[in-house]
Amino acid sequence: MILVSACLLGLNCRFDGQSRTNESLLSSLRNADTIPFCPEQLGGLPTPRHRAWITHGDGKDVLERRSRVVNEVDNDVTAQFIKGAIEAEKLATLFNIKKAYLKSKSPSCGVGKIYHNKNLVTGNGVCATILLQKNIELISI
After folding, report:
1. Amino acid 70: pLDDT
2. Is 46:15 a contact under the CB 8 Å cutoff?
């Protein structure tokens, strides 16, 4: 079983109500057992929703309560991002997940690069951090 950011598979779950369908990923996973997921929806956020970012640091800082996730209208959505990451971790444990394909640059799923407001910085999203802590191989798309 493989976890996949649902937006990459064509589900309209991104903050803007759109998807980021990746045809080559769809093709490569055609015969694989996949679990599409959106940690922001799992955390209780609606679709569409306001764009959000980690205020400073990265997902590890959010999980350790040294940073927050805020949206573009300055609402704190940290609790929803943490809840969604924990729910994704439950899926990973339940299905013995070893690999996940995640949406790049996302404050939830970003691997290696995330946005602070409109600036791209080094770091991992909140969900990516939890999955990394479980030694899951993460592939950024």
Report:
1. 97
2. no
Which residues on adjacent β-strands are paired with residue 36?
A: 4
Nearest to 77 by CA among 111, 103, 47, 51: 51
User: Which of 21, 80, 94, 23 shows the shortest CA–CA distance to 47?
Assistant: 80
Taking CA atoms, 10 is separated from 14, 26, 57, 129, in Å, by: 10, 9, 30, 24
0.85 cut: is pTM over it? Answer: yes
**Element spanning 137, H or E:** strand 137-140
Q: Where are the domains of the chain?
A: 2-140
CA distances to 37, 115, 136 from 100, rounded to whole Å, are 10, 20, 7
Helices (H), the chain: 23-28, 39-42, 59-63, 78-94, 126-133
What's the rounded mean pLDDT across residues 93-106? Answer: 98
**What b-and-e string marks burial along 85-107, b requiring 16 or more CB atoms within 10 Å of the CB?**
bbbbbebbeeeebeebbbbbbbb
